[in-house]
Structures are given as structure tokens and as C-alpha cells.
Design a protein that fits this description.
It contains nine helices and 16 strands. With about 300 residues, the chain is of the alpha+beta class.
Length: about 300
């Protein structure tokens, strides 16, 4: 296959691993900087141009679209979809998962476990909002935050009111969630490919920190997940429409609850923790679900 890797930096660990895995299986990969793509949107011959020329046809696209360029990245990916290129994760699914509030509403509709979450616009509603999520301690999250940035743990109701008022005063979109104390600063990252959890790791927050993100100094180790956790991760990825996803779970007293569904999960931590070739499994999934352009599909029988 001839594969396009939509990435702004080919030297990032995940991008390097995907390139290595694809080339090891005999495929060719071209790294395409998402923000250097531009599009001709016409009725009969839509096209994508890159650095002054029209891009050659690809059999498949692996999107590694950063959160800061979600809008433009999804527009580029939609253009690939319009011209008939197979994509690993489609633009609608990525946009859906990047909207924290929308994704939780979709997961809620499917009856999946979630921390109690509140969302409000008026400062007058802050006291009831805090009560709604069972009071402090509680977690306040910027909807646009990534990798633990813009996430605050408020230990008291008074502190929560002050932080929420400050965010609202800045016109920032936030949501408020119950704090799952029994998780003890740990979460579980499940890597879903297709309809399987192919790997799982436990991420433990550093001392004095409640955020378990590896970028925030958290540590990772392999973990055996329960059948309920496995089912929850798979159903969460399907609810978003993602073929490849990182699903972050917390172990609560009432079962697994979903924190986030990530459409471009990093590979470094989970490959190191589990020793599994996740990049290779992604390419293998791509092979099974993408039809190279030079291959003529068989005619239907009868």
C-alpha cells in the first residue's frame, strides 16, 4: 500500500513507529504536514494540493492530527474521504471525540459508565452545579485542554466556586466532574483496534499530583483489565466511531467510568509498558480494511 501519514512532525515517537512498522511490512509511507495541505473543492474533481503540487493518490491515510489543529485537520481528512481514500479514523469520529462535552453526551446515551458531569453558563448556577456533582473535592476541566493542561482539583466548595468563577470570567468553556477518590490517582489506558483491546496499561500519578498523564510525570505499568473494563473500552470507541482509540478509564466503586476517548493515542508509553508492537497491529488492521487502488474488486457473483 501507499500510505499517507498526516503528521506535523515525522520525528515524534508515534509517527516514527508507524513509519517503521509500515515499511517493515513492505508498504510505502509519505509524511504529509496537515497544515501545508490545501484543497480544491469542486463538484466533480476535488483534489488536495501540497507544497505547490497535487498530491498523488494514496491507498490509505493515517491521521495523527494534533488537538490544536483539529478543525483544519478534519477539513483535510474530509477531502481525502471525498476523493475516495480509505482513512484509519474518519473526520466525523475525530471531531466527535475531540469535543469533550459532546463525547460524554454520546457515551451517556449509550449507557456507559461516566463520572457525574455538570456544565453551565451562568455564574448564578455555580452553587447548584457543585451540588449536582456531589460537592468537593471535584475536578474542573477546560473543554479545550489536552494532556492534563487546564484540569484543576478543587478541595473545597469555596475553592471550586472561586475557580469556576475565574474560568467563566475569562469566557472559557469548562465542565465540572465528581472526583473519583477511590481511583487513587491512577487510570487505565486501553488501546482499542477494531473490536479488540490489544493492550492496556495503568498510569499512576506522581506523588502530590492527581493527574496521571505521562506528560505530567506519571508512571506506566502493564495491567490485567476485567471483562467489564474491556467491554466498556470497546463500546466507547464504537460510540465515537473510531477504529483505533485510546480509552481512559477510572476504577470507581460502581464500576469503570470513562474519562476520555482519544483518537490519536500516543504509542510510546503503552509500547514500553506492555512490550507490544502496537504500531504493527495498527498497520495490520489497515491492511485488512483498506483496498489498494491498483486492486480491482471482484465482480459480484450471480
Amino acid at each position: 500500500m501507499h500510505i499517507a501519514l498526516l503528521s506535523r512532525n515525522r520525528n515524534l515517537y508515534s509517527s516514527r513507529r508507524l513509519i517503521e512498522a509500515a515499511e517493515a511490512r513492505g508498504h510505502t509511507v509519505r509524511v504529509v504536514d496537515t497544515l501545508r495541505c490545501y484543497m480544491s473543492i469542486v463538484s466533480h474533481d476535488p483534489s488536495i494540493h501540497y507544497r505547490g503540487e497535487e498530491l498523488e493518490p494514496f491507498d490509505s491515510v493515517i491521521p495523527r492530527i494534533g488537538a490544536s489543529v483539529t478543525f483544519y485537520g478534519c477539513a483535510v481528512l474530509r477531502q481525502f474521504e471525498m476523493i475516495g481514500t480509505h482513512v484509519l479514523n474518519d473526520s466525523v469520529s475525530i471531531a466527535r471525540s475531540r469535543d469533550k462535552l459532546r463525547s460524554l453526551q454520546l457515551l451517556s446515551r449509550k449507557g456507559l459508565g461516566l463520572p457525574i458531569t455538570g456544565f453551565a453558563h451562568s455564574p448564578d448556577d455555580i452553587p447548584d452545579l457543585i451540588t449536582m456533582v456531589r460537592g468537593a473535592p471535584l475536578v474542573i476541566k477546560l473543554l479545550e485542554g489536552t494532556q492534563g493542561i487546564g484540569v484543576v482539583l478543587a478541595e473545597t466548595n469555596q475553592a471550586a466556586e472561586s475557580v469556576i468563577q475565574a474560568f467563566m470570567g475569562m469566557k472559557a468553556n469548562i465542565m465540572v466532574q465528581e472526583y473519583i477518590k477511590e481511583a487513587k490517582g491512577a487510570d487505565i489506558r486501553c488501546l482499542v483496534i477494531g473490536d479488540k483491546v490489544v493492550a492496556a496499561m495503568k498510569r499512576q500519578a506522581a506523588d502530590g499530583e492527581f493527574r496521571s498523564n505521562l506528560h505530567r510525570g506519571g508512571s506506566a505499568s502493564i495491567i490485567r483489565i476485567t471483562p467489564e473494563e474491556r467491554s466498556t473500552a470497546i463500546r466507547a470507541a464504537k460510540a465515537m466511531g473510531l477504529r483505533v482509540a485510546g480509552v481512559d478509564l477510572l476504577r470507581s466503586n460502581h464500576g469503570p467510568v470513562i474519562m476520555e476517548v482519544n483518537s490519536s493515542p500516543g504509542l510510546r508509553g503503552i509500547e514500553a509498558a506492555t512490550g507490544k508492537d502496537i504500531a504493527g497491529l495498527i498497520i495490520e488492521h489497515l491492511e485488512k480494511n483498506s483496498m489498494p487502488r491498483h486492486r480491482v474488486p471482484p465482480k459480484p457473483k450471480g
